[in-house]
Each structure stands twice: as C-alpha cells, then as structure tokens.
Backbone:
C-alpha cells in the first residue's frame, strides 16, 4: 500500500510542477511513515547520500565550466573551428557543431554549451541569412554532446550510483560523442546545401595557425584532464579540481577575459547550480532507499527477466523508457533514480555496465532536446528570442539522427567499450 502512496504522491507533485527535489523528497514520506521509521532517518539518508568523495567532482566541474564559459574560451574555439570548416556549405552550422564538441570537453554541460556557443553562433548564422529556427535547433542539438564527451556530470552520477569507474566511463564516451557529432555535421552540411547556406572564405594556413595558437590553452584542458587520469597522475575526482585551477589561471592571466572583481559573480553562479544539484542528489538518495525498501529494483528485474531474459528486447524497452523519461525529467535526477535500478538488471542479462552507462548518458543527452522540457531548447530559444515550439520542425530531423545513433551505440557495444579495452581498462 505504501508503494501505491509513493507513486500517487510522486505523480501529484509532478502534475503541480513542484521542483524535482521536492517531488521525490515528499513522495518518500508515506513509505517512511508506513514503515515506522524514525523521522531522523530522513535526515540521515539526506546526509549519507552526499557523503561521498567522488561527488566532489561535480561542484569543481561546474565551477570550471562557469569560469571557462565567461573566460573567452567559446569565442576562441569558434574562431579556430571556423578556419577549419567554415568555408563549406553550411559552414557556420558545422562550426557550431565542431565548436560545441570542443566546448563539451571543457564544460561537461549541455546547457552551458548552448549558452556559450549559441550567444555567438546564432546571431552569426542569422546575419548570413540562415533561418533562425534552423540555427537555434542546430545549436541546441550540437550542445547535447556536452554530456557525452568527457568530462561529463551525468557520467559521474551514473558511476556513483552503480559503483563503476569514472575514468573508464570518461574514455568510453569519446567515440560515441564523436559519432553523434559527425552524423550531425553530415546532416547540417547536406541540408545547408539544399537551402543555399554558403560557407565563408577559405582560410590560409597562416590564419589557421594563428587561430590555433589563440585556442591552444582551451584545447589543452581536456588533454590535461584525461591525460592525467589515464596516466595515473591524479584520480577523476582530483582532475575536477585540476580543471578548476587550470580554468582560473587561463581565464585570469592568459586570456584575461575576467577580472578578480568578476570572480564573485562566477562563484555565486556556480554555487547556486551546485546547490540545486546537491539538493536533488540528497533527496534522490532518500528516494532510492525507499525504493529499495519496497523491493522495487527486484520487481523491475523480475519483470524484465519474465520477458525471457533477452538482452536485445531489454535494450529496446530501456531506450523507449528513457526517451519518454527524457521528455519530462532532467537527465541528472533521472540518472540518479534509474541507474541503481536498471544497471543490475542489465548486468544480469550480460550487458557490460560501462556500455549500459553510455546508453543511459546518450539518452540523457537526447532528453536535453526532447520537448516539452528539453533544457537546451529553453536556452536556445532564450538566446535567439523565439518561441521554443517554432524550432520543432527543424529539430525533428536532428532528433531522428540522434535516436539512430543511440540505437547503434546500444546494439554495437564496441562503439562504447572498444576504446577502454584498447587502453587495457576493461
């Protein structure tokens, strides 16, 4: 009966548009009360959910992304990408995607990538006679690569919830991120050619070298982070602190795009974002413990095993489930709640947990561009000053491409786990 109350309460809070942390926290109360647990248990679980050294990576990566977002990195990455591919048909659309892939390896956030790249590229595309709706849809879709190419906050959340290696997850996300990026570039180029969106002039080798030198400090950041992890110099959690320190030095003393006076606002912005994430994490931990008490993970496992234990059927069902979840929930809370439930089922069916994690992360990325609550769509529409629904027609082909990519990643494990195996990490 308490499980029924849990479901009813969760749906009720969702329908009245309560914040996700409030919804999952208050929905847990009926089970706690019905089980006769002391109220103190709630506070203990909220604290215990955050009592993890690994979770320190999240606030540091958020701060690093915020510093680099305001530190001139997006403009330099865009300039470098433009000298490389800007002369092709749909050059600015391709530059948007390429720059988003570079920025993804710095910020780890889809919404941050949308804001940083979109603020420059959407007006630039409009000035070149691109349809603003196509420009906005391209920017929002390209930015979702931000949670696939490492570092990635959803990857950290998955590994914390399932006790897997963050370093292995990071390396596993590289090829899937590149695959999605290339497929988006091919579509953007072909569509732009049909629509007559011509490219910029061809840049000389000297101009490319100059743009590269200006962007080198930004391009080195993911190399330092990933190289340090895989060489054993520091752990994935420590790499977040290294990224933060590196971003601070580059922004203050190399690019000089921010001042010491502006740091307060940067710290304030990242603190607010971190606080929101941590509150969600703590209530999600309480929710997860309640689900475990009600044996929900076992019920889910039994339900899938009753289908005959076919992992291919399981994967298609999971992708459909995560697609619809992404329509209504942010990727972070969905990852926190669903990963501990679904990952053990996947492992019992012979699916590698790292491979399954990449599937969940890719679906999380897809959710960022899935109406009605895709966060990247909201950011892009605000930057472009248009209604979100006006982008849908231009967005649907991009969504279809990403769905195909997710299915390829789901059914061809080598895309995800090939690189970790090559590095001897699996």
Residues:
């Amino acid at each position: 009966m308490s499980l029924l109350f849990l479901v009813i309460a969760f749906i009720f809070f969702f329908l009245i548009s309560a914040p996700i942390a409030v919804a999952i926290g208050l929905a847990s109360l009926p089970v706690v009360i019905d089980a006769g647990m002391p109220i103190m248990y709630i506070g203990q679980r909220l604290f215990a959910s955050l009592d993890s050294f690994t979770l320190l990576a999240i606030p540091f990566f958020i701060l690093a992304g915020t510093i680099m977002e305001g530190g001139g990195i997006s403009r330099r990455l865009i300039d470098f990408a433009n000298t490389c591919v800007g002369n092709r048909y749909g050059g600015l659309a391709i530059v948007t995607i390429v720059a988003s892939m570079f920025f993804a390896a710095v910020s780890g956030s889809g919404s941050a990538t949308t804001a940083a790249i979109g603020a420059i590229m959407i007006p630039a595309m409009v000035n070149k006679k691109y349809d603003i709706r196509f420009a906005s849809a391209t920017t929002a879709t390209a930015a979702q690569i931000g949670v696939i190419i490492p570092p990635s906050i959803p990857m950290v959340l998955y590994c914390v919830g399932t006790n897997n290696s963050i370093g292995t997850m990071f390396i596993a996300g590289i090829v899937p991120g590149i695959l999605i990026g290339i497929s988006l570039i091919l579509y953007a180029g072909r569509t732009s050619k049909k629509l007559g969106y011509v490219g910029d002039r061809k840049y000389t080798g000297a101009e490319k070298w100059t743009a590269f030198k200006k962007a080198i400090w930004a391009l080195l950041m993911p190399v330092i982070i990933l190289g340090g992890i895989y060489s054993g110099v520091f752990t994935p959690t420590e790499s977040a602190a290294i990224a933060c320190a590196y971003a601070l030095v580059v922004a203050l003393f190399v690019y000089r795009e921010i001042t010491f006076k502006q740091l307060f606002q940067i710290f304030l912005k990242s603190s607010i974002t971190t606080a929101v994430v941590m509150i969600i994490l703590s209530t999600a931990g309480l929710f997860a413990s309640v689900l475990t008490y009600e044996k929900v993970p076992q019920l889910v496992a039994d339900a899938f095993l009753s289908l005959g234990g076919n992992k291919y059927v399981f994967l298609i069902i999971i992708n459909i489930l995560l697609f619809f979840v992404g329509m209504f929930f942010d990727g972070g809370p969905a990852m926190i709640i669903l990963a501990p439930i679904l990952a053990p089922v996947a492992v019992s069916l012979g699916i590698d947990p790292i491979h399954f994690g990449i599937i969940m992360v890719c679906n999380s990325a897809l959710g960022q561009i899935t109406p009605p609550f895709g966060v990247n769509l909201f950011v892009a529409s605000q930057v472009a000053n248009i209604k979100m629904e006006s982008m849908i027609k231009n967005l649907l082909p991009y969504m279809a491409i990403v769905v195909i990519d997710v299915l390829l990643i789901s059914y061809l494990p080598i895309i995800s786990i090939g690189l970790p195996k090559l590095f001897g990490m699996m």
Observations:
- The chain is about 75% helix and 0% strand.
